[in-house]
Amino acid sequence: MVVSGNKEIDGLPMTNLVRITKDNDVAVITIDNPPVNALGPGVPEGIWKAIDETNGDPAIKAAVVIGSGRTFVAGADIKEFGKMTSGASPRRSLLPLLLQIENSGKPVVMAIHGNAFGGGLELAMAGHYRIASPTAQVGQPEVKLGIIPGAGGTQRLPRLVGVAKAVEMCAEGKPVSALEAATLGLIDRLIEGDLLTEAVAFAREIADKPARKTRERTENLGTAAENAVIFASARDVAGKKQRGMKAPLAAIDAVEAATKLSFEQGCEAEAKLFTECLFSDQSKALIHVFFGEREVAKIPDVPKETPVIPVNRVAVVGSGTMGGGIAMVFANAGIPVLLKDVDAAALELGMGKIRKNYASSVQRGRFTQEFVDERLRLITPVNNYDAFSGVDMVVEAIFEGMALKKSVFAELDRSCRQGAILASNTSTLNIDEIAGTTSRPEAVIGTHFFSPANVMRLLEIVRGKKSSKEVIATCMQLSKKLGKIGVLVGNCRGFVGNRMFGPYRREAQFLVEEGADVETVDQALVEFGNAMGPLATGDLAGLDVGWRIRKEYRHLEKPGVRQPFAEDRLCELGRYGQKTLKGWYRYDENRRASADPEVTALVRQWSADAGIPQRQISAAEMVDRCVFALVNEGARILEEGYALRAVDIDIIYLNGYGFPAYRGGPMWYADAVGLQKVYQRICEFNQQHGELWAPAPLLQRLAETGKTFVEFDKEQVVAA
Ligand code: T1G
After folding, report:
1. Is 462 left (phi over 0), alpha (psi -120 to 50) or beta?
2. DSSP classification of residue 428
3. Could you identify the atom of ligand 1 that is nearest to the CA of residue 147?
4. Cα(36) to centroid of ligand 1, in Å?
5. DSSP collapsed to 3 states, 459-498
6. What values do phi and psi take at 107, rounded to 5?
7. CB 490 within 8 A of CB 643
8. Is the separation of the CB atoms in 401 and 373 below 8 Å?
């Protein structure tokens, strides 16, 4: 039974999610399910009813399907997936609806603005024609949720755009602009004017012409020989770019089915693969990530309505690697930047790096030369604070030293207008102490970018004791404009990400000191899914950075507690990592790493001197030691309130530390392993290695009461 309107269908409350109106001889079917017209309960039924009405009305010659509000259709309703995996009826399945549209006796024109994603694009492909606003985007992003298109997308898309492009779109999940879609044959016409008016005119134009059904087209399906090459290369790319993920490979299998089977059989193959993916742990983790990325934007005591400060001009102090990268981030978002350094020589060095960076982006085809020229024009090098009175925000990105930072902030306090945001990119220093040197601590906040700033998506926004709500709201909103994911954290040493990274890297060192090989430790974590091993990461960042910090904070270390020594000793030997071509590994002039027997010999000797027993360590223990160290510290951070939710920690780790998205982040991973198991393992490590492994009280409590971090987060929301 399918009806629309304000009725109840099989116990489902119905609102007016799909409207049908008539423009003389054209039916206009409007999907109105804010915010993104997801195909949630009631929408497919409504469209079905509207198509029936169109076909039943002799005065109607064609139909237009259009989305109300900001977009066409963003796909199936992701919130419903949990219900599907727990066995709800597939009654609302989209496949039959799409066949019904395709079989419609009257041609159906899909009019796309905003996004046609996932089920939205599948819906559009079942129409006989697609027209779009030039700014629209279309795509099959399902792999990002750990699933594949489930409503014929893998079968219809290759029929429209060819096998190679369909494989790319389904396996990589990247959206395609309407302009590109038009050249691919996915969009029949681009509409500059009013979409609905033009769609109705277009529908009239094609009403009497024979309409083609996408599923019956075969001309783009290629030959077996051509396709074999395409699929082999796609599997190769997926194995490298999406290492460890199952959905991209399933998506490739499904598109391959389109080239080998009939449409109906292909859909069956797709459905089987879709179900396998939907029930996988990877998909649950990735859906957690999808909602988590949106959740982190919600700050309980900084409501959505909080006024924000317009940020139209900024300044960055310090033109080193971080400062230069941050200036590029602002310029890429179209915001003019003053880039300040001490003198012309320092500035020329900084600007040179920026130019080089942009040139390589042009070379790799990421940006056009025009785009880069325009961005470079937005960056003005300056060697004094004279023009700072005209900026809305400053990001300080100088060397990590408190005295120096304080003098910069005192200067900013003198030079900047009241109301401007004074941000520090510090990764370790106390924001409140920095704020204290100004007459306006409410304007001071931490904006901790990750290196390389123009590439990494994470932005830790560090809330000082006095940071105002306006300043926080502005930075959170700005992060989105800058293409970053902003996560609000509290002001503790290392903030959230680096505070957890300390114990993680500490354990990697311990493992080597206990007898594991450097590359075996890294390999274990890479196989777990991390982008890089912990020791190789140290070499990349520079081992001397941590060494210097440790020296500064040595007085805070508790006597008698085990501390790693290998990295400090490597630094004493001048082995700082990649920059000295020697660290945990040795590097050739192209910075290609190889194992260094000298390091093995040195560590073995140091361990023998320290009396550390040497043993065989399994890959599983290596992963537990490093990852549970993250979890334990994460639990402390949560309990102390420096992160708002466990999911915030997950989002930090996925976007700033190369943690595999398909594992959902360290806290989600711990839930998936089971907190009781994690807690037990941490207790074992505590016995073996002492106080550093004292279990976090929150972890203990959750484990003992059979709860999860997800449940902890829900309780926080209720409490707020
Ligand atoms: N289902 C449910 N809720 C959704 C949703 C969806 N598909 N898309 C967005 N939302 C919510 C989101 O959680 C947020 O809620 C609000 O809408 C605004 O989103 C059958 C199986 C469309 C580009 O993967 O990429 O189709 O936080 O903040 O920046 O084969 O949302 O306000 O409460 O992101 O303007 C495939 C996912 C589904 C698209 C808009 N589709 N969405 O971005 O706003 S699977 C997707 C997006 C599928 C078929 C398969 C983006 C967007 P809240 P937002 P935005």
Report:
1. beta
2. S
3. 21
4. 7
5. EEEEECCCCCHHHHHHHHHHHHHCCCEEEEEECCCCCCHH
6. -60, 145
7. yes
8. no
Task: Report the distance separating Cα 493 and Cα 103, nearest Å.
Answer: 63
Contact 626, 520 (CB under 8 A): no
- Chain centre to alpha carbon of residue 32: 28
At 513, the amino acid letter reads: E
Start-to-end CA span in the chain (Å): 42
Residues forming beta bridges with residue 12, ordered by sequence position = 9
Handedness of CA 389, 306, 480, 465 (dihedral sign): positive
Pairing relationship of beta strands 176-177 and 129-132 according to DSSP bridges: unpaired
- Ligand 1, atom 43, lies closest to the CA of 36
How much distance in Å is there from the Cα of 74 to the middle of ligand 1?
A: 6
Give catalytic residue positions: 122, 142
Q: Which atom of ligand 1 is nearest to the CA of 298?
A: 27
Retrieve residue 175's tokens: 């959206």
Give the Cα separation of 436 and 432 in Å (integer).
6
**Ligand 1: which residue has its CA nearest to atom 34?**
294
Residues with CB under 6 A from ligand 1: 35-36, 38, 74-79, 94, 115, 117-119, 122, 141-142, 145, 147, 149-151, 153, 294
Atom of ligand 1 nearest to the CA of 295: 27
CA of 276 to the centre of ligand 1 (A): 22
* Average pLDDT of adjacent 10-residue blocks, the chain of 720 residues: 38 69 97 96 94 96 98 95 54 82 97 98 98 98 97 97 98 98 98 97 96 96 97 97 97 98 97 95 97 96 96 97 96 98 96 96 93 97 96 95 94 97 94 97 98 94 98 98 98 95 97 98 98 96 86 80 93 96 95 96 97 97 98 98 98 97 98 98 96 97 98 82
CA of 284 to the centre of ligand 1 (A): 16
**Which pLDDT does position 458 carry in this prediction?**
98
Q: Hey, which of 36, 84, 457, 647 would you mutate to test ligand 1's pocket, going by the most ligand atoms within 8 Å of its Cβ?
A: 36
How far apart (Å, rounded) are the C-alpha atoms in residues 294 and 50?
A: 33
Is the omega angle on the peptide bond into residue 503 within 30 degrees of 0, that is, cis? no
Enter the pTM of the model. Answer: 0.94
> Residue 41 and residue 15: Cα distance in Å, rounded?
10
| Closest by CA position to 567, among listed 525, 608, 538 | 538
d(CA 412, CA 385): 8
**Which residue has a Cα nearest atom 25 of ligand 1?**
74
Helices (H), 482-542: 497-513, 518-528, 534-541
- What is the residue whose two structure tokens read 């020791």? 535
* Ligand 1 pocket mutation pick from 17, 77, 78 by most atoms within 8 angstroms of CB: 78
**Torsion sign over Cα 702, 708, 711, 716:** positive
If you measure from the C-alpha of residue 18 to the centroid of ligand 1, how many angstroms do you get, rounded to a whole number?
A: 18
